[in-house]
Structures are given as C-alpha cells and as structure tokens.
Predict the structure.
Amino acid sequence: MNPSLLHDAPHPAETIVLGKRFRLPNSRSIDTYLANDGYQAFMKASKMTPDEIINEVKTSNLRGRGGAGFPTGMKWSFVPKQSPKPKYIVVNGDESEPGTCKDRVLIQYDPHQLIEGILIAGMSVDAHRGWIYIRGEYRYLIDIMDKAISEAYARGWLGKNIQGTGFDFELSTHTGAGAYECGEESALLESLEGKRGVPRIRPPFPAVSGAFQCPTILNNVETFAAVPGILQMGGQAWADLGIPKAGGTKLTCLTGHVNRPGVYELALGFPVRRMLEEVGGGIRGGKKLKAMIPGGSSCPILTGEEAWELNMDYDSMAKVKTMLGSGGVVIMDEDTDMVKAALRIIRFYQHESCGWCIPCREGTLWLKKLLTRLDEGVGTVQDIDLVGDLADNMLGRTFCPLGDAAAMPMMSIVRKFRHEFEAKLAQKSVSMAGLPQLVSING
Amino acid sequence: MADVTFTVNGKSLQAPAGTLLIDACKRSGIEIPAFCYYEGLALQAACRMCLVEVEKAPKLLAGCTLPVAEGMVVHTESPAVVKARKTTLEFLLTNHPLDCPVCDKGGECELQDMVFRYGAGESRFTEIKHHVDEKQWSPVVYFDAPRCILCYRCVRICDEGLGVKALGVTNRGAYAEITPNKGDHLECDECGSCIDICPVGALTSGIYRYQTRPWEMEHVGTICTHCSNGCKTTLGVKNDQIIRGNNRDRSGINGEFLCVKGRYAFDFVGHAERLQSPLMRVDGKLVEVSWSKALAHVAQKFSEIKAAGGKFGVIGSEHTTNEENFYLQKFARQGLGTPHIDHRRSGDVPALLDAVSGKSGALATTADLYNAKAVLIIGSDLSQQHPFLAYQIRSDARHHQAKIFTVTEGPVREDKVAAKKVRAAAGEQLAAVMGLAEDLRAAGDLVVVFGDSIQGSAVGELVSFIDSLGVPAKYVCLVDYANSRGALDMGLAPHLGPGYHAAAQTGMSLSEMLADATLDALWVVGSNPLKSAKLASEKAFVVVQELFLTETAQRADVVLPAASAYEKSGTVTNVCGEAQRLRKAVSVMGAKADLDIFGLLARGMRLDLGQAAPDKVFEEIRTSVHGYNVPLPVIATGGAAMTAPVNGRLPAAAQPPAIQSARDSLFTSGSLGRYSKVLKTVLEAPGGLYKP
C-alpha cells in the first residue's frame, strides 16, 4: 500500500474544498460520500439545462488541472451540440509527470467525487459513456476506482435512469500500459482505442473528434473532481476562492527538500514564500533554496531567488517564463547537484519519448548521452553550449508537447546553473598529462 | 471548393481551400521537403522536415498538415526554416549509420539528398550510435533498423495501400523499430512496396541488394509479362541482366504499384532451364540443332503439309505481343490457309462486347476503377489474381469512399472495404448480384468487374440487369495474362478475326484441335495446352515456340526457343483494353522473338505476309484492326492508350468456347511462374502466406 501523502490534519493555510472528505473514516465508500453532500451537486445539475451547467463552470474560472490550464467551461462548450454521434467523457488519470501525485490522492480518498464530476460533465454535453484512463502503475487505484464504480452502479448512481432523473451513464476504468506519452490527450485516446500510444494530428481537437472519432470531453482527474464543488457552492463562490482569471483551489504536491512534503490544497495565487515556509515547514535542514520546479519536471526551472517572491498561479508563473503545470512542486536545496538533476530529468524524457517524431526521439537520447558524460566530468565547454542548443532545436518543432517538456527544463538549467556544469568539468576533467604515450608515430 | 489566395516566398499562389500547403506548393514548383508525407497515404507530421514559417504563427508549422487559407503568408526557405531542417537532419543522423558507400540506397536516397542540400558539413555528435543487427523478414525483404528514420511509409503502404497490415512499430523512443506483426517474419504479399517506398536503405530487396549502384544500371520501362493488369515495370539492367524491377518514377497506369511478380519475377529470364538452342526430334529424341536447320525443317514440313491439303492447328499465346498475335493469325489464315486458330481462353470478352453493343464508354479503364463511385466484383479474388485492379479499388474506397460490393465464392480481401459482401457459388453469382439491386442503384456510377463465372449468355443477362438499374455502368471482363486481351483483339479465335470481325471461315477451337485425331500439324506459340490435355493426333507434326521445355514442348517435333516479353519490343493490351509498349531490356543468347521466328518461317515458305518488324506490324494493326487506331505518341512515350473494340453485335461462336481462368495466386503465374526462383522461394518460405 502506498504511504499516505496526506498529513493527519490539514494545514491551517489550506483552503479545503476538494479534500473535504479526505480525512473522514472510510472516506472512499459511497456511504461516507452520500452522508457528506455526496451526489447533491449531480441532483442540482439534473434540474439545470446543459448551458446553465457549462455557464456555471465558466463562471468558476476553473482551468484544466492537467498542466495546460485551458479554461474548462470553454472546452466543454466546444462540443458540437448538433452532432449525430454519441458524445463521450474521458478522464485523464495517467498522472505521470515527475513530482505530481495529486490525482492519486483524489482517487484514493474520494473516488465518488470524481464520478459525480463525470456525471455532471456528461449531463452538460449529453454524453452517456465515460472512461477513466488510469496509468497502469496505479494498480491499487484502479481497484479502488473499480470498487467505487460498482458501488455507484449498485446504488443507482450509474447506469440507466440515474436516481429517476432519466439520465443514463455508463462508466468504466481503462488501464494504461506504462507510457508517460499517454498522458497527452490525443495519445491517451489512441491508447484508449487499443492502439499504440502516439499522439494524433490536431485539429480536430477531442471536443470535435475524440474517442472513436466522436465528440469527447477530456479533462484531468482534478478538473472533474472540482466540478461537484463548483455546482454546490456556485461558480462565483468557487471563483472567489482564487484570483481573477483562475478560480478555486489547486492540489499542490510539495516534494523534495522541504520539511513537510505532501499534498496540500491551496487557493490559486498562494504565495510561494508562505507555501515553503508555513505549509512546507521550511527547507530541509534550514538550508537555502537553490531551485524550484513549479509544476512538474517539464516546467522551466526557477532559481531560489526567482521563486521566492512568486505566487502559485498561471499568470504569475507565465511572467517568469515557466508554468504552474500540474502542481508538482519540486524543491531543491543548496546541496543539489544541478547537473545530476538535469540528467535525471532528461533520462525520464528519453525513456518516455514515444519515438513518433524525429526531434524528440533523437534529441532526448542525444541529450541523455551528453549529460551522462558531463555528469562524469567528461567533456568540453562547447558540450555545455550544445545542451542548450540541442534543446533549443527541439523546442517548438516536435509533434507533441513532450519534446518541449524535455527541452524547457534543459534550457533553463543550463542557462541558470551553467557555472555548475563548468565547475564539474574543471573539477573532473580528464588530463592527458602523465599518461603513457600509446602510439609512437616516428618510432 | 473555392480558391484561396496565399503567398509563398513572396509569390502569390492560388489553390482550392483545404489543399495542404505541401501539395499546393508542389503544384507551383516549390518543394517543401518531407520524409513521412506521402501523397495518397495518411498524414503523419512525424518527420518535422516540412516545418515552414507562417507569418503570425507563434512557431514553425508542419506544411504537410496545414491547409492553405486566404491571406496566409508562408516562407519555406527562410533562415529559421533552413535551420530547422538542418537540425532535424542532424538529429536524424545521430543514430543513422553513415554507411552510404555500401548501402543499396546510396545515390537514390532521400536522406542523402536532404543532407546534401541542408546538412552540416561537420558532425557534433560524438556519442556512440545505437545499433541493431540487420534482420531478414522474408526471402525478399531485409530490414536494417539503424538506417530507419521512422517515417512510417512502409507501415502505411502495407496497411492502406495493400490492405495487408503486415508491419507495425515496437519499442519506444529512439529504440522504436518497425516490426512485422508476425514478430520475426512477414506473412504478406511480398510485393516489396515497403522497400520501394522506404526513403532510406532500411528496407532492402533480397534480390537486388549488393548487386549494383543505382547509377550503373540502365532503366528500361516496359510492361510486366505476368498477369493481365498491365503494370509498367522499370527494369534495372546491368551487363545485359535484369537485376531490379520497380516503378519509382510512377510512369504508367499503375503509378508505383507493383506486386511480387512485377517486382521480382523477372528472374525466369535467366533460368538455367531456359531453351537457348532449337531442338529437333531425331530418332525419337529432341536434340539441339542450329536455327537454320530447325527453321528449314519446319518451313519444309509446313509447305509439304500445306501442299498436301493437310489440316493445320495453330494455338497462340497469352503472353506474346499484339504484333506477334496479329502476324500469327495472318500466317495461319493467309499463309497456311487454315481457319483453325485459337488460344487458351480465360474470360468471355466477346460476350461482353456483344452485350454492350450500341453503348458508348461501356468498357472501364484501370483509372475508372479508382474513380468510380461504386465497384461490383463478381467471382474473382482480385487481390490474388489481379493485384493492381484490387489496389485501384482499395484506393478508390479509401480516397473517394467508393462503395465496394463483392460477390464471390469465398472470402476475399476486398471484403474489408466492402459495403456488402455476398458468398455465392459460381453458378449462383448472377442471382446474388440481382439481390443487390437496391444497393447498386443507390450507389450509382458503377464499374462491374467479373471473372469466368459469368460467361456466355450470363454476360448478357448481367448487362441487361445492370441496365435495368438505370445507373451509368462500365465493365471489366477479367482475363488471365499479360496479353490475353490482345490475343482476342488480334483474332486468335476460331470464329473471330482481328477486331472481332467474323472470320471468313470458322475453324476448330483449341479443344477440338487437340481432340482431332486427323490433325496433320500443330503449331503452338507460347502456350502449354498439353499440360492438362492429350493430343489425339499421333501423326501431327508439332512445332512449339517456347521459353522452356514445357509438357507441350516435350511432345514437339521441333522446339524453337523464344524470347520473353522482356527481350523484345511490341505492344500488349491489358485486361481493360489499354495498349502499352514493351521495350526490350535484355537479350538471351539463342532465343528469338516470336515475330522474328514468324518472319523467318514465312520467308522459308516463300509467303508474302509483310515485314515482320514490330513497328511495321503495329502500323498495320493501327490501320486495319478495329479500335487500335491509338495515338502513336502515347504508345511511343510509354503511355497507355485505350483501345475501342468494335461496337456492334458479334458473330456467335459455333460452339460455346471453353473459358476458364487459371486461378493463379499472387505467387503463381502459369508455366512462367514455375521458372521463377523468387516466386518459389516465397512460396516455400517458413510461415504462412497472407490470407484475408
């Protein structure tokens, strides 16, 4: 069993909305859920028109929690109403971004909240079939989700004519096979359809042609899980929790060199300083903050100085040319070897590159080989430039964002921590002096 | 769709809205390089070579998936674009071995060309390359994974083009590899399209590899001599030997399509059992003699039999050229004065012509099969017997959403793209077709392709049924071999002369000749009737013109070694009636073209049948055979000219002819196929063959 990512009690600075049932005994059972406002948002939604539901979500300023931050209500409104095809709901639970561990908390402690969110989304676009795509490594979560789904069927919250509303919905889980790439929405759809997990050409976007070429709402687990709360408290109230243009709360996964790592629900716009000092309990061992990755390893890295004064929201991060991403905050203290960190990150992306397009496929492998060498102290100063140059040659030229995700951290690390690369070369550079001559040309 | 105006490199262009930028540019003479983009196949946008700069776009966009839009301003050679190409090539070369000097593709490699144009002079890659050992997937397909640039062309041509889907991708990232879906070997058509379409030397041909450099070959565009589809095949010739067949220049009706026979089965030409000297029966045994002796003997015997009023039987070929067939029937009817001329019949073309009498444009071309709104296939496993027609129909379904109907005995590959499939025994197929009346009427604009299950009066019934639907329809009557259609057109039939005009005198059919115990002479040109029948006449003087010592040749009194289609010039007419030119690629010592043999025999018999030269005879055909007045420039430049046979009622045969298709598979080709090592190796390779 996975060790808990939640502390026994929420931190006072947290704003608890999504996580309000997390710490209840037996929180994942449908009884607990029903006893604590469960499925009330769905009943409320069943008395609303689809447009009213979508407008409520629009008002809430909910933005996609998978990493890209696209406004959710707008995404839902792209689903063509007149399409004669069936419409589908697909949940992206392929949480694989290094540093991110929020979806698993949502599924582990409150799976019914996710089901309710899916049902509401289904009502808003007249969809009657949904899949929860969960990464294969989350084996135990698949069991939990499957159990919650069967409970919901047994109690009439899934299936035909749900609670007499006349609304039908079928839901099941679908297991990934261990590819990070399948967290990219179009690759996820390919995988869901039983094909090799490689991204699709877009447009058309899933809202128009998604699963099985039908209009599909595809959102992150956290996005769907936020929807019942929005319906219950009202879009405006939810929006007011956050800041303008980014409503509500966000599960933040604080990892790395902090005293109290864990998953915290923070209102959008929460200051980084408070997040680290109060919520995280400060940097481990009283050390200094060297670097911070704000939202999963694909985001450009921030130096300690840059990070310290920022707020955790989409626009603040965009101003310093990085991203809020998935909420996987990685904290690195002053002892961190940034060359090793870069190597660790590129090893991940090299391993996960699907191979579809040339720049990502070849670029990540080249970078891995190069950084392995630099980490050993073998190389030249030109090799350091090459890291940045190769990443730059990948950036914006790959088929899907995986290439960018690999390139951006590389470019930012080399730019911001170049001295560490140089120091490593200087310290370990292989000297030819003193070595015996291997080949004598002139006898 | 309406045209939109856009600008590329400062040049204002127009194209229909929705056209892909890469296509629109190509039509205007601007090349956007690409590896994965391939006209007619699904879009991939994987190679990123076609990235172009579009003003107001935040980053470079892939030209292969970008539809042109009004006012779009594009730069295809800007510094940013050129840098992107250069870096993409740099990435590609990191794991691509630089073994161009020993690579089959060197000299015609798209990667080589691109690197030559955009690549860096110096490599920045100093790490170790990823290496995988070469694999043999089938007798004719080798795969060298490190050379592969993962453009997925092979995967798509096999799936979309051939409908076989023998290839897929395994592993991930830089270790991703094209892999047969059977794991370590191919179970497919062995057509080699994947090899042809490969932009680099990753897929190589088991026949051609390490034989030559591309620029050391002569390239001779001629017509495949196997089935009746008439695919153009460009033979790579070096030192008077054919070492490669392909059609990369997309000339000809088939574009670059070729099946295993067109691509590899030219090897019968140099088979060890090829006859290279005339044989004469001496003391009951066939012995090698000189050409002059053999020809003199035949001329003398023929003259004697003719003088004695003896009975000649002449059996023509389905592989010989129109010129040879025309000359042969003239030789028989005028020279020998016999009406007994025929050839093995595989489809009832005369019945079709009779049934469509009075209609114009009732005969479909191969292009019609690609453009029709609906295709009805009756009684033929097209993918096995007529691979190019099947390819056209599959492409029609894929590109034009054509409705395909199959009425066949067993499952066929076309079922996969069929709107309706019906299983019916040969005798019940016409009734089954009639059951599809509503679907066919709704589909409209129909091409009907039928095999030997519809013959005689059934052809007329089929045509009047289709007429009753009230939709425009065209027909293809399937025949077996390269010039089966031409043999009929040239009058190798007992009751029909050239152009389907009634013969002056009706003679015996092939089976009647063989059964006639009083036959004095039998002259067989490029045919093997005694494989399955016996010659009743024991006294008959038998002359056989053949490539090999077939069952028929073994019965001969004189065997004259003939040249194959790849060793001579002339024209052939394919299943749809399209005439195309053969060009001589090689010569085989000792063998003579059938037309040359006819000429020599005519001279030996002092007959005046006109000059036996392909051009002269073709000129005579053009002026005297109905429907063959085709434009010379089209033929001369290697194009296909549709012939238009007589439009009117045809004289009825005395006896319904025996019509039966040989039902060749992809890997057999009548007697010829027996002498192709490639076809045999493929058939005998471990693993199964692809079945629908």
User: Anything to note?
Assistant: The mean pLDDT of chain A is 93. The radius of gyration of chain A is 23 Å. Chain A touches chain B through 28 residues (CB under 8 Å).
